[in-house]
Amino acid sequence: MYNLTEQQKELCAKEVIMFNRLITTEEQRSTKEYITLCDNLLKEEFNEMLDASTKEDQVQYLDGVCDTFVTLVQLQDALGKDSFTSELLEDYVVVPHVSGYYCWPTPAKRRRDYYGAILEVCRSNLTKVPTIREVIGMYGPDLAIACEAAKDWVETHRSYKGIWWDTVVDADWTWRVVFKDENNKVMKPWCFEEPQLEQFISSY
Fold first, then answer.
1. Which DSSP letter does residue 175 get?
2. Secondary structure (DSSP) of 39-62
């Protein structure tokens, strides 16, 4: 994608895969339901990118590009691929999800740091999975009660029902809490931080 080198794509993909394997188990990733979820999220993000391009909304366009990359890698991981390959941008984005051939849109007179932006989205995504320390710091020392309170916040403020939570451990052996809906989609808790993408857009 534009100014992303193959090495940068690989590094970004590793960050996405690390997050994907934090929020899902190998058994969950192999299910037809999860693959369908990833495919639907990919279509949704790609369409949002196209919509932002049409409206010439630079920030939302960049957000859409990054989220399309993220969901594409998540789909690839669910399908059991070992490493990211650029050809998947063609195989899973261009061909199946648009009518006819479509090249990545390029709104004029803007320079974008896609590498920095994707890493920022990865940072933002990790804030969806707070550490246990953050949860009990917010809602009290009893972990179960604190997680239930955090779950209730998601249902109230994100307008979702049937939210459930689980504890997971990241690559640094830090215990975290993930909140999901009935379709296994990760929800945004109180501590979620939106990606700050304006810094990765500049005029020529």
1. E
2. HHHHHHHHHHHHHHHHTT-HHHHH
**CA atoms of 203 and 110, how far apart (whole Å):** 5
Give the Cα separation of 107 and 126 in Å (integer). Answer: 29
pLDDT of 116-143, one tens digit each? 999 999 999 999 999 999 999 999 999 9
> Which residues, other chains included, contact 2 with Cβ-Cβ below 8 Å and sequence gap of 6+?
104, 106, 112, 114
pTM for this one? 0.86
What letter represents residue 61's amino acid?
A: Y
- Domain regions of the chain by residue span: 6-127+193-202, 132-180
**What is the residue whose two structure tokens read 């590009």?**
65
- Give the span between the Cα atoms of 126 and 19, in whole angstroms: 7
Distance between CA atoms of residues 34 and 77, nearest Å: 11
